[in-house]
Specification:
Layout: H1 3-15, E1 26-27, H2 34-42, E2 48-49, H3 52-59, H4 68-81, E3 86-89, H5 98-108, E4 112-116, E5 118-119, E6 124-125, H6 128-142, E7 147-152, H7 162-174, E8 179-182, H8 190-196, E9 202-203, H9 212-218, E10 222-223, H10 228-245
Parallel strand pairs: 1-10, 2-3, 3-4, 4-7, 7-8, 9-10
Antiparallel strand pairs: 5-6
């Protein structure tokens, strides 16, 4: 992507996060390959955000086990397949120095990234101030060329006090994050989180009642789905395979 075109795409993506009504949060489907990206773009979504677990599954890996080179290559294929902005979930950065991480994201054509504050299969939380310092380095390297969504993993695999997630989020915003994402935080905490944290807030639906409009009413700015869309599609393929095995031709 040409630098001018890239900056236009980043500005478009950043603008999508601001000036929204509570009833109209930004909905970002998560493509796992080029074909799914085209389907979401053709449906009229203004931007996309890849899920690392969904991409991992499409490549034959479990979540967190995708080699960095394969993840960046997958993101590049997705970004090339569509004419709308694509943000990339690059987990906790694959141990890359901020300068290299930013360069790899830009080379892949991503306009933004998800960066987690936990590591390893047990999602051990990083020291929040150390993580904020690292995010500040990423921001310094990227300048305005990337939209940084800082994922807050306080609720991932554990019961947490929302105050901890809020403390982390405020540090990350101060470090330059454009948006914060308290993944798996119960929606009931969203109003408090929204009131105490500046800037856009990313939310994940946890139940059928968690519609985009409802999460927006509670304080979410944008909605993503993790690997759920890829898993729904995989389930549909499994059902089709069963019908084929039984001798039925799918319609």
């Amino acid at each position: 992507m040409e630098p001018t075109h890239h900056m236009t795409a980043v500005e478009t993506f950043r603008a999508l996060h601001h000036g929204r009504s509570a009833a109209d949060p930004l909905v970002l489907p998560g493509p796992w390959d080029a074909a799914s990206a085209r389907a979401f773009a053709d449906a009229g979504f203004p931007a996309l955000a890849t899920p690392s677990a969904g991409v991992a599954a499409s490549l034959g890996y479990t979540d967190g086990q995708t080699p960095a080179d394969e993840m960046f290559a997958a993101v590049a294929r997705i970004a090339r397949a569509v004419d709308i902005p694509v943000s990339a979930d690059v987990e906790s950065g694959y141990g890359l120095p901020p300068k290299e991480l930013v360069a790899r994201l830009l080379e892949a054509g991503a306009v933004g990234c998800n960066l987690e504050d936990s590591t390893g299969p047990d999602h051990a939380l990083r020291d929040p101030r150390a993580h904020a310092d690292w995010l500040a380095e990423v921001r310094a390297e990227a300048g305005a060329a990337l939209f940084v969504n800082a994922r807050v993993d306080s609720f991932l695999g554990r019961t947490a006090d929302p105050a901890e997630a809020i403390t982390r989020a405020r540090l990350y915003v101060a470090a330059g994050a454009d948006c914060v994402y308290p993944i798996l935080m119960p929606p009931a905490h969203l109003p408090r989180f929204r009131a105490e944290v500046e800037g856009p807030v990313n939310a994940l639906p946890l139940a059928p009642r968690d519609t985009p409009a409802e999460l927006g009413r509670l304080g979410a700015t944008r909605i993503t789905f993790g690997p759920r869309l890829q898993r729904w599609t995989a389930g549909a393929v499994a059902s089709m395979a069963e019908r084929l095995r039984e001798g039925t031709v799918p319609e």
